[in-house]
Amino acid sequence: MLTESTLDPANAVYRKVIKAGDHWSHVIKKGQTFRILDLEGNQAADTLFYNAHDPVDRYSASDTIRCQQALYLTSGSKLMSSGGNELLEITADTCGRHDTLGGACSRESNTMRYAIEKENMHACRDSFICGLHDHSDDLGKRDITCNINFFMNVPVTPEGGLTFADGISAPGRYVEMVAKMDVIALISNCPQLNNPCNAYNPTPVEAIIWD
Ligand SMILES: [Zn+2]
User: Fold this and answer.
1) Residue 161: CB partners within 8 Å, gap ≥ 6?
2) Where's the DUF1989 domain (predicted)?
């Protein structure tokens, strides 16, 4: 569902452009509003959330899908944790659909999907690991779960098949959510150079936070 925000980035308390292929992590406090802005369009923002006070309690795709009885995320979606807690709720969305199923690219999946020579190319899984280490030496590879792909379009066919389709986002589209508890947000701004979903051209996104 397309819903616009009334918030003005000029009043934001935090703004950060995440460069193409880079990672970013930040604590979003309970009650703050968090926007991810697709600056140039059709960029996949692979995203994970953790309870900032207990990172074992983290975004759960299956709990989120079951809670809302729907596969895609948009305005009104509550992002649920593995412990059954509401991490954030999406309050504005000018893209209209975000993927819960496709997961993140990894060096291993790049060799499977594209070519064995792709093994050394940087991938979201590496970015997630770097972002988690920024927070704590206790967080690492085993703390990466099935992530949200904001702005990515992965339609499910009537037969239940997954298709990675052309993006439906565009320059300036955004998704916005309110934190229901203090959360660690972790984004891998996908560096993928082999997938047509971003036109083989990763581009920057912006993280914006309001009190
Ligand atoms: Zn990726």
Assistant:
1) none
2) 17-184
Question: Distance, CA 125 to ligand 1 centroid (Å)?
Answer: 7
> CB within 8 A of 93, min separation 6: which ones?
1, 2, 3, 74, 75, 174, 175, 176
Distance of CA 29 to the CA centre of its chain: 18
What pTM did the predictor assign?
Answer: 0.94
Q: Cα separation of 81 and 85, whole Å?
A: 5
Residue type, 47: T
CA of 44 to the centre of ligand 1 (A): 7
Extract the tokens encoding 97.
């659909």
DSSP run (H or E) holding 188: strand 183-189
Ligand 1 centroid to 204 CA: how many Å? 13
* Model confidence pLDDT, tens digit, residues 116-166: 887 877 889 999 999 999 888 899 999 999 999 999 988 899 999 988 777
Q: Give the DSSP letter string of 51-92.
A: ETT-TTSBB-HHHHHHHHT-SSB-TT-EEEBTTS-EEEEEEE
How far away, in angstroms, is 158 Cα from ligand 1 center? 26
Residue 203: left if φ>0, alpha if ψ -120 to 50, beta else—which one?
beta
Residue 2 per-residue DSSP state: -
Cβ contact 167:41 at 8 Å: yes
